[in-house]
Protein: Nitroreductase family protein
Organism: Amycolatopsis cihanbeyliensis
Amino acid sequence: MTSTPPLNDAVRAALEAAVRVPSPHNTQPWRFETGRDGVEVFLDRQRVLDVVDPDGREARLACGAAIFNLRLTLAVTGWASEVSLLPDRCLPDHLATVRLTWRHQPGARERELARAIGHRRSNRRPFTERPVPRSARESLIEAARVEGAELALLEHPGDLDAVAALVRRAERVQSEDPDFQAELRAWTVNGGPRDDGVPLLAGGPRPAPGSLLTPRQYDAHAPERPYEGEVLVGVLGSGTDTPLAHLRSGLALQRVLLTGTTLGLSASFLAQPVELPDTRAALRGLLGGRTHPQTVLRFGYGFSAPATRRRPVDAVTRPRESL
Ligand SMILES: Cc1cc2nc3c(=O)[nH]c(=O)nc-3n(C[C@H](O)[C@H](O)[C@H](O)COP(=O)(O)O)c2cc1C
């Protein structure tokens, strides 16, 4: 395979899509190297959050999501690819090799998911009270399953209340932790030229008293508003809790989010209870101990939410040095 212009175009389109995925505090913890026949994906250790993500688990979720977008975009530009996760046991930050294999005729579903990439965003605003129908719930669950993860939707009020209580507990612990707050402030952006971090405008309102959910607060002065009473929350989990499982969960995360986007659903994260060891263990217990929680998502029908910025592809990509 030669590095012809069409191949370069496909790789560039795939990288543009890869960087659109969600990442904790919009840290964008990835690096890419391009070679003659594909892309190498690396964890950027300097962008792993020390306080909230000391093991890099959430950063690997984000990179797994980026790998999903890479694979999907290559497919819709006419290339099948072979993805090998953690290809080198001696290099744990070398997360994936994505190798273009043969020409591929994209299907309608691939095109639909790929079209959703630019429309997906974290929508932290209150959603409407319109319930998410059963068929959409099943599609979200199936999206996680296809990638080898599990999405447990909390359909029983008792489960939802218990998880909401864990979110509240974790949110309180984090909001009282000066190190957590300092890190959050460092990644919250109020205008200016930065192309990473979470813009204040993308934060949600503070929940009015009586709201079940306690989203992460990026702006202590945000107005107070009630969140939806018709709440749909899901816990994305994996059978093991290894770096490989984190990457696979990231692929599943992105398939779930894009599937939701194609169904007109908005989503946001409530990751707080997964970020602290004791609330994470309690969450695992609530799910019957069968799955390791990787993140918590909220789904619903929302109004528009702003897009956040990304570092340009050229700032995170370099050609692979030939050996
Ligand atoms: C693993 C993970 C955990 C996250 N946790 C939270 C969270 O607890 N609260 C929140 O509001 N956003 C959370 N986010 C969303 C990011 O802040 C968001 O993806 C980033 O700011 C980029 O914005 P976008 O998703 O709209 O593109 C999380 C994202 C990831 C990948």
